[in-house]
Design goal:
The chain has 245 residues and is α/β, with parallel strands linked by helices. The chain has a seven-stranded parallel beta sheet with strand order 3-2-1-4-5-6-7, sandwiched between helices.
Length: 245
């Protein structure tokens, strides 16, 4: 899944990417374009060649779908961190996490699947938070829900020849991670066997692979990219190190 030799791999494919203005989304867009795809990059943020899209807005998804003739892949990358801890987590924060992290991908699937021919691909950018219990309850629960949506969609859409897979990034150097408390980053970094945080460019080649025909028999897969973080039990120490008064 390395970046070498990817040029032309996605020639002729039309790919929609959400949360594409920065971080993992921007890296995925660059890698997909380098591999030959025509990319529709969307975000609520402004950016070069970015089409405005609020993933929680049904009408915005319908408008996007109406502007496209065919879609070969959807990369559901948009998401928020939602770091509030129990028991102080508010209902509003919980709902917002689910609206963006779970309902957004579901609405995207509903809107774009009618435009997808057999052989198309949906990639849900999940998280290692969906591999275990993490302290950020809303984020963790929403990513577990996205993992469940991925599995259900892989079952439902397989008969159409549409593959649905999940990518599970670990600690990645993005604007989302930059907003985390220093204690969280330090504690998490100490648990990564490779001894470094990931880069958005570490994730993008796997997204290209899952969009490409090379992954034609991948369906319902969950690909962890975390430097070994979840290869061992770790999060209790991280939770304790970042626990507030």
């Amino acid at each position: 899944m390395s970046g070498a030799g990817m040029s032309g791999r996605l020639d002729g494919k039309v790919v929609v990417v959400t949360g594409a203005a920065r971080g993992q989304g921007a890296a995925a867009v660059a890698a997909l374009r380098a591999a030959g795809a025509t990319v529709v990059a969307t975000d609520v943020l402004d950016g070069p060649l970015i089409r405005k899209l609020d993933v929680t807005d049904d009408a915005a998804w319908a408008e996007l779908a109406g502007s496209l003739e065919r879609v070969d892949a959807l990369v559901n990358n948009a998401g928020i961190a939602a770091r509030e801890r129990l028991p102080n987590l508010t209902k509003a924060a919980w709902q917002r996490a689910f609206d963006i992290n779970v309902t957004g991908p579901m609405l995207g699937i509903q809107a774009l699947v009618p435009l997808m021919p057999p052989g198309s691909s949906i990639v849900n950018v999940c998280s290692v938070a969906a591999m275990a219990g993490h302290a950020a309850a809303a984020y963790t629960a929403s990513k577990w829900a996205l993992r469940g949506l991925t599995r259900s969609a892989s079952l439902e859409l397989g008969e159409r020849g549409i593959r649905v897979n999940a990518v599970m990034p670990g600690l990645i150097d993005t604007p989302m991670m930059a907003s985390a408390p220093g204690a969280f980053t330090d504690a998490a970094l100490a648990e990564i066997p490779l001894g470094r945080v990931g880069r958005p460019e570490d994730i993008a080649p796997t997204i290209v692979f899952l969009v490409s025909d090379d992954s034609a028999y991948y369906n319902g897969a969950e690909i962890v990219i975390d430097g070994g973080l979840t290869a061992h039990v770790s999060h209790k120490r991280i939770a304790d190190a970042t626990r507030g008064g």
